[in-house]
Specification:
The complex is a heterodimer of chains A (about 625) and B (about 350). Helices cover about 35% and strands about 20% of the residues of chain A. Chain A has about 625 residues and is α/β, with parallel strands linked by helices. Chain A folds into three domains: about 220 residues, Pyruvate-ferredoxin Oxidoreductase, domain 3 (3-Layer(aba) Sandwich); about 280 residues, 3-Layer(aba) Sandwich (Rossmann fold); about 100 residues, Rossmann fold, CATH 3.40.50. In chain A, the strands form five sheets. A seven-stranded mixed β-sheet of chain A has the order 11-10-12-13-15-14-21, sandwiched between helices. A six-stranded mixed β-sheet of chain A has the order 3-4-2-5-6-7, with helices on both faces. In chain A, strands 18-20-19-22-23 form a five-stranded mixed β-sheet, sandwiched between helices. In chain A, helix 7 runs antiparallel to helix 8 and helix 9 runs parallel beside helix 14. The longest helix of chain A is centred in the N-terminal third of the chain and has 20 residues. Chain A starts with a strand and ends with a helix. Chain B has about 350 residues and is α/β, with parallel strands linked by helices. Chain B has two domains: about 280 residues, Rossmann fold, CATH 3.40.50.970; about 35 residues, no CATH class. In chain B, strands 2-1-3-4-6-5-11-7 form an eight-stranded mixed β-sheet, with helices on both faces. Chain B is globular and about 95 Å long. The chains are: A alpha/beta (about 625), B alpha/beta (about 350). The interface between A and B is large, with 76 and 63 residues.
Chain lengths: ~625, ~350
């Protein structure tokens, strides 16, 4: 039968099923095929904190959302246009997020009495009319999959049923005209050692595709044209974790400093340890430490030895690392600390996102211990944030905190792969014995007798980094207050005041090398929406929609939280109203109010979910 | 140590090369002075230039040690010395790394880091100054303070069972464990030498007298009139016997442990022959626990010295990749080009 093709500018699909249904796999395969088409895209997986939540229950639902379009995409999308529900629990857990008219594709076979009970349905929603606001396609996916793979050797009926995610993927691939070769190749490579599984999955995938093509159930195929406003270049799809680890390795290569990552397993930061541990041939050493404290200490010990020391964790680990970060402030050694934020306090919600560690990053240490804080704003931007953090740490001999979050870590988007030659070289400027041996104060690191001064300062107020093994520069550093210049222990009050000031001035001075806060403003805009960190996509999309709706609004985004760009105060004061959306109770707003005496308004979201464009649009509309 | 001087040159170093210009500030009579002096005296023997030696310390009186050595040094945070040093050792195989710590630093707040450094067999030499008291904070009970001890924090006596550092290290799978005494420079130096020749982690418990808050804690082992009767010197390959005339000895007890006997009663042939390289740490563990506290006959010397793969020694490259390799990495996975 002839099927019509309709164009769509953008589509949001959510694959939802039980943890064991393979939804992450189906979603990521669909993503790769979508990237091949040339659509812009963004994705967001969401899975239960429990590794094996009871099958068929709401707690066990795992989802993968992809937003793809023919224009540039800023977020993984708010409400899905299409929900693929592999069982009643998946339907129930996601239904409330669908708009009227959204398409629902269900695995009809899973809507058994027992599964309905597990999901808490008294009646079958496919029968009782409760889905009348939506377009529902009922497909007996399990039956069709089992039938498709019948007769393959070494594949039991149970195994056959497990390939239904590939069947679903086949249906969706047909529906949105995704190329199939890339998926088939992936199946062949992934299961190369298990010919039976390759065959089963290929047959299931093909059966899904053919089902879409031939059945009368689906009468329209959709087309999302390639995005045309994408800058030329070579792209790959990355999530924030991958981008961040690549940024760290790039900084290692461009500084010539071997990377040492010490980490303790914690959700959602463990992936950084996993990824970096695979890159030993790049001179990367990874240590799984005995605890969070040790992880920070090991990274700092490696930095003392002249390496790029990095530790990665989430909020609960930051509590424990505070002590070592304070030591790094006193030692004035480079250290990169990555905090992949999650909802707190305490253990909180380990797999849910939040931006609630900002004040801790800025102030969460005893004594006066200022340090730079950088927050990537997109998944791909994690590459630049990691590289920048390493550069600042090395240039200024200081610990730097990178505030990523669970949303950035797991969401993905196309990344324009940079040319390595365009990445700035980072010069560690190790102190060598030359100037000291010759008793020449050439580097300003020796006194008039030629004695090394480990706490002398360069024009950035950074101290010399003299690593063990350098003859003639033996020196001792520690957490006790140091005398200016010599670094000897000093309890002198005036010296302490001077050292406290110098440490603060050094960090504040980093702002001189930062780009000013850029404002995306329309003429006559009186409202500024100012965000930070992972919410950039949602805020940009929300502002775009508000403008399309006729509102006049300006937008800016902070990636450096300390020091703030030098023009931050001027920007804030040039608008009548400033709205700061955050996934916390107004932490940045509090900082801006205190620092600039501007009556900042907060929009706070604390639901363990990223900000949505629709929420930003609404907040803007309410302030017009 | 396995390290040699650069280029095979013979280094002519003296104790003075290892003394920093900082004034030592321990209390008069502190056992730390004796240990510092013995360590500085021993260092030239390593044949390693001072710039390739690092002393890492934690918090406590012993923490000041790093400031007095003219090597590279890091005075860290309380208990975290082994963590800092493990990172350094991972980064730099070319360094000789020493940790100086105390009973509070390494057995209380830093207990976790100590046991993990030992089980990993990180190439660190750990000098644990055990004075059985908190000195820097002026006299609270430590995890090695004996039961019933009256201190500022335990006016009715210590009720927590103490750690035995040697037994703890053995339980943590340490490959080198020794015990020595601050006032016995010769023995201390012999143990330092053996530890420096050991390839992995070495833990040396040093009974160290605190003259202000716990004076005489080790008198049974240091005072002339009693020390012969109480020091059980462990010497590899030799029967374990002690006393002024070697009249006492150690045998395996019928119950499976060890017991002290009169050699005259049992005969020398029945004595336990010390073997620190024995694969099974069981006998070393029993030796460590022979005396409940050092007021009775107590073994000193090397309890265990075995070989096991050393942490961080890998065949992997120690240098970052080239720009070309980085470019290859960045472009790995599925890529597409937009013209």
């Amino acid at each position: 039968m002839a099927k019509s093709v309709e164009d769509r500018e953008r589509v949001i699909i959510r694959f939802a099923g039980d943890s064991g249904d393979g939804m992450q796999l189906a979603g990521s395969r669909f993503t790769d095929a979508t990237a091949m088409v040339g659509n812009d895209l963004a994705t967001l997986p969401n899975f239960p904190a429990e590794i094996r939540a009871p099958a068929g229950t709401l707690a066990g639902v795992s989802t993968f959302q992809i937003h793809f379009a023919s224009r540039d995409i800023l977020t993984p999308g708010d409400a899905p246009n299409v929900l693929v529900a592999m069982n009643p629990a998946a339907l129930k857990a996601n239904l409330s997020e669908l708009d009227r008219g959204a398409t629902i594709i269900v695995n009809e076979d899973a809507f058994t009495k027992r599964n309905l009970e597990k999901a808490g349905y008294a009646t079958n929603p496919l029968e009782d009319g409760s889905l009348s606001a939506h377009r529902v396609h009922r497909i007996p996916m399990t039956t069709l999959t089992v039938r498709a793979v019948e007769g393959i050797e070494d594949v039991s009926t149970r195994d056959a049923g497990r390939a239904k995610n590939l069947f679903a993927l086949g249906v969706l691939s047909w529906l949105y005209g995704r190329p199939t070769e890339i998926t088939k190749q992936w199946i062949e490579q992934k299961f190369a050692r298990k010919p039976g599984v390759v065959q089963a999955n290929l047959k299931a995938f093909n059966a899904g595709w053919s089902f879409g093509e031939t059945t009368e159930l689906l009468d329209v195929q959709y087309r999302v044209k390639p995005a045309t406003d994408v800058p030329p270049g070579t792209y790959r799809n990355v999530n924030g974790t991958t981008a961040l680890t690549l940024g760290l390795i790039a900084a290692s290569v461009r500084s010539g400093l071997p990377l040492v990552l010490a980490s303790y397993p914690i959700t959602p930061a463990s992936e950084i340890l996993h990824e970096l541990s695979r890159h030993a041939r790049f001179g990367v050493s990874t240590i799984q430490a005995e605890d969070e404290i040790a992880a920070a200490g090991m990274a700092l010990g490696a930095a003392f030895g002249g390496r790029l020391g990095v530790t990665a964790t989430s909020g609960p680990g930051m509590d424990l690392k505070a002590e070592t970060i304070g030591l790094a402030v006193a030692l004035e050694l480079p250290l990169v600390v990555i905090d992949v934020q999650r909802a707190g306090p305490s253990t909180g919600m380990p797999t849910k996102t939040e931006q609630s560690d900002l004040l801790m990053a800025l102030y969460g240490r005893h004594g006066e211990s200022p340090l730079p804080v950088i927050a990537p704003s997109t998944a791909a931007g994690c590459f630049d944030a990691a590289f920048e953090a390493a550069r600042i740490a090395i240039d200024y001999r200081t610990p730097v905190i990178v505030l990523s979050d669970s949303f950035l870590a797991s969401s993905s988007e196309p990344w324009k792969v940079p040319d390595v030659a365009d990445l700035p070289a980072i010069d560690p400027r190790f102190a060598d014995g030359g100037a000291v041996d010759g008793a020449v104060d050439g580097d300003g690191v020796a006194d008039s007798d030629g004695a090394f001064l480990p706490y002398s300062r360069d024009e950035r107020l950074a101290r010399p980094w003299a690593v063990p093994g350098t003859p003639g520069l033996q020196h001792r550093i520690g957490g006790l207050e140091k005398a200016d210049g010599t670094g000897n222990i000093s309890y002198d009050g005036a010296n302490h005041a001077r050292m406290t000031r110098v440490r603060a001035e050094k960090v504040a001075g980093i702002a001189r090398g930062l780009p000013p806060l850029a404002v995306d403003a329309e003429p006559g805009a009186r409202l500024l929406v100012l965000g930070w960190g992972s919410s950039e996509g949602a805020i940009r999309a929300g502002v775009r929609r508000a403008r399309e709706a006729g509102h006049t609004v300006a937008r800016a985004h902070l990636r450096h939280l300390n020091p703030l760009p030098e023009n931050t105060g001027d920007v804030l004061r040039s608008f009548d109203r400033v709205l700061v959306p955050e996934m916390n109770s107004g932490q940045l707003a509090q900082v801006l109010r205190a620092r600039f005496l501007v009556d900042v308004e907060s929009f706070c979201k604390l639901e363990g979910q990223p900000l949505f464009a629709a929420e930003i649009e609404r907040e803007i509309a309410e302030r017009q | 140590m396995t390290h040699n001087g650069a280029g095979g040159d013979v280094l002519t170093l003296t104790k003075a090369d290892f003394q920093s210009d900082q004034e030592t500030r321990w209390c008069p009579g502190c056992g730390d002075y004796a240990v510092l002096s013995a360590v500085q005296q021993f260092m030239p023997e390593l044949g390693i230039p001072p710039e390739r030696i690092v002393f890492v310390t934690g918090i406590g009186c012993a923490g000041r040690f790093s400031y007095y050595m003219n090597t590279y040094g890091m005075h860290g945070i309380h208990g975290r010395g082994p963590a800092l040093a493990t990172g350094l050792a991972t980064a730099r195989e070319d360094l000789s790394i020493w940790i100086v710590t105390g009973d509070g630093d390494s057995l209380s707040i830093g207990g976790n880091h100590l046991i993990h450094a030992l089980r990993r067999n990180v190439p660190l030499k750990i000098l644990l100054m055990n004075n059985q008291i908190y000195g820097l904070t002026k006299g609270q009970a430590s995890p090695t303070s004996e039961l019933g001890k009256i201190t500022k924090s335990t006016p009715f006596g210590v009720s927590d069972h103490p750690f035995n550092p040697v037994a703890l290290a053995l339980g943590a799978e340490a490959t080198f464990v020794a015990r020595t005494i601050d006032r016995d420079r010769q023995h201390l130096t012999e143990v330092l030498r053996a530890a420096s020749q050991h390839e992995g982690a070495a833990l040396i418990e040093i009974y160290q007298n605190c003259p202000v808050f716990n004076d005489g804690a080790f008198a049974a082992l240091t005072e002339k009139d009693v020390k012969d009767a109480n020091q059980i010197r462990l010497e590899p390959g030799r029967p374990i016997r002690f006393g002024a005339d070697g009249e006492r000895g150690i045998v395996r007890s019928p119950e499976g442990g060890l017991e002290i006997v009169d050699v005259a009663d049992c005969g020398e042939a029945s004595l336990l022959v010390h073997d620190p390289q024995h694969a099974d740490p069981g006998v070393a563990f029993s030796l460590a626990r022979l005396a409940e506290d050092p007021t009775a006959p107590t073994p000193i010397g090397i309890f265990r010295d075995v070989r096991r793969p050393v942490y961080g020694r890998t065949a992997l490259p120690a240098a970052p990749a080239s720009d070309a390799q980085l470019s290859e990495l960045l472009l790995s996975g599925d890529t597409w080009t937009v013209a």
